[in-house]
Structure to design on (439 residues):
């Protein structure tokens, strides 16, 4: 008993968070996205990278400050004495102490540009992280809808089996009374077996889709995992006529990948300025104070230190004359980098425009497909109901009945697929318009 209590305590202490997470009976889309963003490795690495950018910016600003250094030297020397003619070595020792400071006064705004770059990198890191989060959120949305789709497939299969079982019982009664042939009965029985296989496959797909979502969330797989099943009827056939230009202009204002591309272009432009600063001289100022002691001098230690204090100050001008074309090469490389960043920004905008054009067309096509699938399903439903009544009254054989039922199953499957395709198309369009992902 004590051992069991101990094991439970360890589980609660070491894995409590995941355990409680798995025990949640209902996971909404918003909750799944939030959990995934908290646990995703790429997001966490991006957050660490952003912390590095902040530290780099701080270090860049600190380069404006003066540097201060202190040094202490203790020297021991031995030499042969020439005045006495002795061959023995005579030793001496001395100490030197100094404190120095230096600061850059002019370097063609190189430090200023480095600071600007570092601060831009902070914003770029934020937008890059936001881009990663949006990509993960879309993956979670897709996986979530796949579970809802698979769940409805399971429900439809179960309803079809219930109907087929009733018809099989009826066919069995007719077989006993010899109103139908053994072949007709076997066809109905075969249809039921086929539907049971479809149900098994649907349940398998549902289980796989759940595992996929849990893995995307970095949540340990658990049988107790269940998602919310919101009412999606209000999300269907909204009759949208999306305008590509309007959606694209809105996306340019809010999408992080566009802002990140623009920042990378600014950083590349500053690279050119930094490279060109190599053409200009660097002016630095330095100051310091020093003193020393030697045992060869008659004064005592503190007397020598006090009397030997020597302050100094000065300016240093470093003028580049010939640097093996290094500066010129750096400038040309920076120009190429800017052109590359400009093309990358253009490509980002173009890819966004193409994605929005596709999303708008997907909405239009999905609406048409859903409306057509709905009308076809209604027609097949009426036809199937009529065939079911005729089969019950013995007015048609099992072949005609099964053809009608198969047509209904196909129509129902097409309607279900077009339904979730339409919902996903709406959500993608909302995503580009800045509407939060929710169901």
């Amino acid at each position: 008993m004590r051992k069991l209590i101990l094991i439970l305590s360890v589980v609660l202490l070491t894995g409590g968070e995941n355990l409680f997470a798995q025990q949640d009976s209902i996971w909404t889309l918003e909750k799944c996205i939030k959990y995934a963003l908290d646990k995703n490795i790429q997001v966490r690495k991006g957050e660490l990278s952003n912390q590095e950018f902040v530290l780099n910016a701080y270090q860049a600003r600190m380069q404006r400050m003066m540097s201060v250094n202190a040094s202490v030297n203790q020297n021991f020397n031995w030499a042969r004495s020439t005045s006495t003619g002795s061959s023995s070595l005579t030793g001496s020792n001395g100490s030197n102490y100094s404190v120095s400071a230096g600061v850059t006064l002019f370097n063609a705004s190189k430090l200023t540009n480095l600071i600007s770059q570092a601060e831009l990198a902070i914003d770029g890191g934020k937008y890059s992280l936001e881009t990663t989060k949006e990509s993960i959120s879309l993956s979670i949305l897709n996986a979530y809808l796949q579970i809802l789709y698979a769940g409805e497939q399971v429900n439809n299969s179960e309803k079809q089996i219930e109907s087929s079982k009733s018809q099989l019982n009826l066919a069995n009664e007719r077989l006993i009374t010899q109103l139908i042939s053994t072949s007709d009965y076997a066809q109905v029985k075969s249809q039921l077996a086929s539907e049971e296989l479809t149900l098994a496959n649907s349940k398998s797909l549902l289980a796989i889709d759940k595992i996929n979502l849990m893995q995307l969330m970095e949540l340990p797989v658990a049988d107790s995992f269940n998602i919310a099943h919101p009412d999606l009827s209000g999300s269907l056939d909204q009759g949208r006529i999306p305008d590509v230009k309007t959606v694209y202009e809105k996306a340019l204002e809010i999408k992080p990948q566009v802002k990140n591309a623009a920042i990378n272009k600014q950083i590349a432009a500053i690279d050119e300025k930094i490279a060109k600063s190599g053409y200009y001289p660097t002016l630095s100022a330095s100051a310091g104070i020093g003193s020393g002691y030697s045992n060869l001098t008659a004064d005592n230690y503190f007397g020598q230190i006090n009397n030997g204090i020597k302050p100094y100050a000065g300016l240093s001008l470093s003028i580049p004359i010939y640097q093996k074309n290094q500066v010129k090469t750096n400038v040309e490389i920076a120009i190429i980098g800017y052109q590359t960043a400009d093309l990358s920004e253009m490509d980002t905008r173009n890819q966004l425009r193409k994605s929005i054009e596709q999303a708008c067309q997907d909405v239009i096509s999905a609406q048409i497909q859903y409306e057509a699938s709905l009308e076809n399903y209604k027609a097949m439903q009426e036809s199937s109901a009529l065939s079911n009544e005729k089969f019950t009254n013995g007015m048609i054989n099992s072949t005609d009945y099964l053809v009608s039922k198969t047509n209904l199953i196909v129509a129902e499957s097409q309607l279900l697929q077009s339904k979730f395709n339409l919902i996903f198309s709406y959500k993608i369009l909302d995503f580009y318009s800045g509407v939060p992902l929710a169901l």
Strands lie at 67-80, 89-106, 282-294, 310-318. The chain has ten helices and four strands. The longest helix spans residues 110-176. The chain has one domain: 41-67+100-281+319-432.
